[in-house]
Amino acid sequence: MTAYSEAQQVGQEAVRAAILDATTHLLVAEGPGALTVRRISGAVGCSTKVIYTLFGAKEGLEEALWLEGFARFERALRTGRTSADPLTRLHECGAAYRAYALAEPEYYRVMFQGALPGFVPDAAALAAGRRAFDILYADVASCLEAGQLRGDAQEIADLLWMAAHGATSLELSGHFGPVEAEQRFVTLCASVLTPFLPGPPDERTPS
Fold first, then answer.
1. What's the N-to-C CA distance of the chain in angstroms?
2. Global confidence as pTM
3. Chain CA centroid to CA 152, Å
4. Residue 176 class from Cβ within 10 Å (0-12 exposed, 13-18 middle, 19+ buried)?
5. Taking the CB of residue 151, how many other CB atoms lie within 10 A of it?
6. What letter would DSSP give residue 175?
């Protein structure tokens, strides 16, 4: 790839990201009815041809929103885990989940809260989304291998996902303030793991 073609690619990716960001803002602010190519092009300041060229029909744009959201989510989870200790890294994964939702609430609503009525991701899109949760599963598996947890990796990962999603959704809906929500989130995730900690029940204390 030449330097010129690389520059072109960077420019196209920047345009693509700007269109997707503008689309999520419109979706949350005005609802699905605002998602017309003309309305989006006006918000971005580009021609409708640019949108058709990059995404094709409206369905292509909706799928791109889903994929972009999960791509950002996956990056957030991967960069949010820094500890060498498996159990600490698992808690960091939960914290990264919440941090992503708060930083990208529009994408989070597309991914998990039905912001696109009627949109059904195909198998390839679902697989792309699942890659993010493979990170959580791998962290749980590492804890099991290290003897820091015991039980079924899939069950533990699913319970953590359910807890994180419920707590985060309530926070995004305004039911809890940020300080209170963070405290509750930490306690909830620790409580989910408590039954799977090794040792007698009376020795298990949330970290």
1. 50
2. 0.82
3. 23
4. middle
5. 16
6. S
Question: What are the chain's domains?
Answer: 1-56 (1.10.10.60), 58-203 (1.10.357.10)
Q: How far lies 111's CA from each of 77, 115, 184, in Å?
A: 15, 8, 23
DSSP state of 31: -
The answer to whether 163 and 156 have CB atoms below 8 angstroms apart is no
Q: How far apart are CA 77 and CA 99, in angstroms?
A: 9
CA-based Rg of the chain, rounded to a whole angstrom? 20
pLDDT (tens digit per residue) in 157-198: 999 999 999 999 999 999 999 999 999 999 999 999 999 999
Place of tokens 């949108």: 51
Q: Is 80 helix (H, G, I), strand (E, B) or coil?
A: coil
Is the Cβ–Cβ distance between 22 and 34 less than 8 Å?
Answer: no
Q: Is the Cα dihedral 176, 179, 180, 184 positive or negative? A: positive
The span from the CA of 26 to the CA of 49, in Å, is 19
